[in-house]
Amino acid sequence: MGKVVGIDLGTTNSVVATLDEGQPWVIPDEDGSLLLPSYVGLSESGQLLVGQVASRQYGAAPERTVKSIKRHMGTDYQVTLADQTYRPQEISAIILRSLKQRAEAALGESVSQAVITVPAYFTDAQRQATKEAGEIAGFEVLQILNEPTAAALVFEVETDETENVLVYDLGGGTFDVSVVEITGSVTEVLASHGNNRLGGDDFDRQLQRYLIDRFHQSQGVEVPEDHGIRDRLLQSAERAKIALSDHAFTTVREPFLVSKEDTALHLEVDISREDFEHLIHPFLKETLEAIDRALSDAEMSPSDLNRVILVGGSTRIPLVQRLVEAHLTDVPVSSFEPELCVALGAALQAGVLTGEAVDNILVDVCPHSLGIAAVIDTALGPIPNMFSVIIPRNTVIPTSKSQVYFTTFDRQSIVEVEVFQGENPVAQENVPLGSFEIEGLPPKPAGDVEVEVHFDFDLNGILTVTATEKGMGQQKSLVVNDTKVGRLSSHELNQARQQVSSLFESLETIDIDADWRETEDEDRLNLEEE
Ligand code: ADP
Ligand code: MG
What we know:
By secondary structure, the chain is α+β, with helices and mostly antiparallel strands.
């Protein structure tokens, strides 16, 4: 018997993971890629293509390439590739087979047993088809596991109490939200909702349309309905979207896009994260409605939830996390390798089923919110010195996030970036971590100078803050080596409290000046409030 694997057979990407001494890890291909795009195709000469190579030819040769076959699992849909027809199970089997080979090459032994995941809403027919795909690929399928359950396994906490977890999964072409109840090692999906036509692909198409419009505006020429050109723009739209998850701005450059009267026209468009957020906001609103429906089907209110887990590549978009957090106030939102965690959970389950001792992954989170002092617009007008959070508490680390700020005065030439850690809405009430200035800003009206502040928080708790003035590109950084400075753990805080109160008890036995005692009592109150 060889090693066991867990497989996330996704609509857009598939992933294979296994266990090493009880710890799950994702198996890369020989180039180091962790994801296998769920594309299958035939090359011009009839050679079988799977993954990246197949997805690359999709634009040029859609008739020889299949994508998103998962949508057809369990139906009698047939695809034609060259002159042959294939059933969905067979196409899926080709993907699974390719992952099996990847695993065998990396592990140097045969791999025969697998746990394969499916969406919670999959019918019996769809599950059966998935199992058949596994068998065609040469696997013994140990279990067909629900994706949200697999994701929840990765976050499992050591407790015997029942936990209610909401899994929000926004992938490339599908969106699912499930409410899962976990008691010890038993998990049950209580409700599941979603839209299997909503995901990152929609965001790419919105951005593609935006690029086409902007090109038309600036060049006065329509982008032709040419498959190759449109596909090129769709791919740069996806790259821009991914860049905007980490940066507040990006520039899309597509030289020689079209020609007009013998001159080549280039596309060059700046996109801000804010513009992108406007484009996708309507889609995300729909996902929030699905959360409410899933909760009401499970007969729960947000306060019954112990945590929210974000799954799927599209949850890397900062707005997604912000909206989910705002919608489910007070429920901690966690995310850990959102494209990989379903496969990692499947590998854990494969280990459990074959009697291997498994360890849950210890996810490390950032214990306090990190941000800067800024003027914040409120219903009562702008308020200075507010704490603008860039990395919220409980974000899984390592992480990097950024935010854009604007000047508040006309001809403002300096901005000061003051970094704080804590949860108080007033910046100065938090723990200061350092500050720096960016000078020599271009003399422009208030609000016209944009500064991107980028926070990078690594596994060792080191925070690097970089501020960049967008126009002239001036940049400055600050490295905070120990973000724990000046902060007591809750244990230390309790100890300190006890020490201080026992000191007061002993003082009270001595006859002391009343005035003095009063002021000390105030100090003590302050300490408790903190
Ligand atoms: P699926 O479960 O549908 O197979 P994934 O969970 O792998 O898909 O998600 C794929 C989607 O995630 C794609 O649309 C991809 O563009 C998007 N994606 C991946 N990384 C990022 C990122 N950093 N920011 C925004 N979207 C991302
Ligand atoms: Mg998925």
